[in-house]
Structure formats: structure tokens, C-alpha cells
Amino acid sequence: MSAAxxxxxxxxxxxxxxxxxxxxxxxxxxQIALAKEQTAAYAEILRDVAPHAVxxxxxxxxxxxxxxxxxxxxxxxxxxxxxxxGFSVVxxxxxxxxxxxxxxxxxxxPMYEPEAYRTDYWRMGRALRAAGxxxxxxxxxxFSYHLTPAGSMLETGANAIGCTVFAAGTGNTEHQLQALVDxxxxxxxxxxxxxxxxxxxxxxAKVCVKSLRxxxxxxxxxxxxxxxxLRGRGIEAYQAYATADVGSIAYETQAREGLVVDEGVLVxxxxxxxxxxxxxxxxxEVVVTTFNPDYPLIRLATGDLSAVLPGAxxxxxxNLRLKGWMGRTDQLTKVRGMFVHPxxxxxxxxxxxHVRKARLVVAADMARDEMTLQVETHDVPEGLADAxxxxxxxxxxxxxxVVVMAPGTLPDDGxxxxxxxxxxxxxxxxxxxxxx
Length: 436
Description:
Blueprint: H1 17-38, H2 40-45, H3 57-60, E1 66-67, H4 68-77, E2 90-91, E3 99-107, E4 111-116, H5 125-130, E5 138-141, H6 150-160, E6 164-167, H7 173-183, E7 187-190, H8 192-205, E8 214-217, H9 224-232, E9 236-243, E10 247-252, E11 259-261, E12 265-270, E13 284-290, E14 300-306, E15 308-309, E16 321-322, E17 333-335, E18 338-340, H10 342-349, E19 355-365, E20 368-377, H11 384-396, E21 401-405, E22 417-419
């Protein structure tokens, strides 16, 4: 690992923890006031909140939590008026926005997210630095540049720390492999499974891609087996946790002990049902407040479960550390970079009255996700499994297998989606991939 990974991006990362907490809490009333005064959505959500009174984590815990489904619901309700549902300060003249947006993205939902005119808008520079990227590197970026913000998130972060970026995007494996050979990049950013695909294609083609020595991966689970496989090829890969609305939330360091929280957000671990903070070390939902003046999200609930690790990162970074992904509050999961919802499983079986119960099982071999729909039925009409396979692909946009089982086989535990991929680090940002 290069010396860059051991050197934080700026002094904010090594602040005295008590000093950081004071500074974050001092900035909190201003951010809440900005959100309340400059966005229509928070003017309503925070109507009973006095910004000047929110000066500690206890009083912050009384501020209403905003969930992603609420963002989506408001965007749909405001369709034709404001695609951001009243949450964004930036936009364009027709929206009567205070400031101009540079780009607009669409994540699955569809959900619309703004990007404004600021260097490293998504704050990915710190995650890249922690993964060993440094000034002068050439970065092969295979995150999507189409619709979703992932490609821009990593490109602007890489540019901010002095890197040059090859805008590879998704798919076109042969062309991307040729670019790896011709350009000899220093590092890769993208999903871990596609990095594996590229390296296996290189082996098949008997071409050398030994220039790659570092990687920052996200968008899906990154099992230890794949991390070790990459290390065996001379590539040290680390993970980032980010979302399309918040940007960077936390990132892995060379210590490989959880994820260090980014300096541009305030993270709470709360009880999913009440939004009340839990004690350090206790499992709860990750809730994030951003200090982004352009898209000021206050207490956004991610749906991810995690816990705070004790102590500071051995690399000298002093912010909170998240233990890792410990489940979902809503059974939402990601398969090959795409979100799959429990409601989609219900949609698949809706037209098949013979099916009494269903469970989607997700497993993986070194980040190569496999999806199997298990269904219970007394009768097995001819063509049932094939029809369910077709329905699964049509509704989720992903390939999967179907296993028909006798009634009473599936556990009666309320699970609709069972993730057997182990414990990946926290769910990262939304991506769309065309490489299957």
C-alpha cells in the first residue's frame, strides 16, 4: 500500500473527537434552519422544530426522521412541479431555485438527485485517499455514467485529489479490457464483481493488466474471498459506503477495521421503530444528516443496520467507525448492483394462485451473485417454474432460478428475502449495471 493511504486527506480527519463533535453540533442548527427556510419539504417536515434548540444528539433525536420512501412519495406527488419533491435548494430557473444545479441523476424508483457546482460534491476524495489513490494516478472508472450518479461521484472525487480518470462506465467488457492494456491505469473503481470479470477475461485473452495495484469498490457485497483473490493478483481493494442522495457516508481504511465516517455528515445509530439513538455498540439503523447546503437532508434513514465500533481507527483517523452491514430494516437487498424489494417477490407470484409462499434466496461466490426463488405449492402445473423464471426476470430485471417445494418447507419467520452472502460492509450507493 502506498504512503497515500496512510495520510489523511486533510486535518479534519484527525481532529480531536470532542472538538469534532462540538463543531458538528454547532453547525447543526444552521443546517436545519437552511433546510427549513430554503426547501418546501423541510418547511413542512420541520415546522415544529426550532433550529436553535437542536444543539446536541439528544435534541437531534427528537427531530423527525425522513425515510427514502418519503423522498420518493414527495417526488411523485410533486411531479411536473419539482422533480426533487421540494428537498433541493439547487435546480434551474423553472423550479425557482436559489442556485443552479450542474447535473440531475435518476436512480431506481425513479428517484431524482441533484449535483451542484462544487469540487468533490459527493465527498469521495477521502475514500479514494484511504484506498491508496494519489495525485497523478490514472483511474479506470467502471461505475455507471448513465442515469445514476455513481460514475460522476467517483470521477469528481478522483479529480479532487489530482487523479486522471478513464470514463469506462458499465458493460463493453472487451473494450474495457483493451483500455486496461493500452492505458495501464494505476487503479480501478467500480463494482468488485466486474473487476473480477475483467481480470478473468484478461486471463482468457492472455493479456497483462499488472498495472492495477489499488481499487475502491462499492455497489455490492465484497466478500473476504474475493478481497484475498484480488490481493493474490497484487491488487489491494477497499470499500466505500455511499448513497445517491447523501454521497459518501463512510469508507474502509488500510486498517480494515470497519468503516470510518466521512467528515461531511453526522451519523446516528437509532432504533428503527422510533428514531431514538441507541448506545454505542448496540445495533440500530444508520441515520444520516448532511451538511450539504445544496441538498440538505436532515436525519435521512438509510434502512441499513449497523453499530459503532469502539475506539479510533489505527490509521489516525478519529471519526466514528461503523462495524459493517448487519441487515436491513426492510429486507431490501442488492443483487448484481440492483435493489430488489420484498414487494417485487409478491409481484412475481401474484399471477400464480398455486403458489402459497415464496422466498428469494441470494447467495454468492466471490461477489458473483446468484438468486433463487423458492416457492411452496400443492400442485405443480406444467410450465410453472419456467413462467416464474420469466416473471422474476421481468419484474426484477435480473436472472434467477426457481425451486418448487412442498408446503411447509419454508421457515415461518416472515422473511421474504434471505441474504446468504455473509456480512458485507454497508450497502453502498445505487448503481445500474449492464454487464451481466
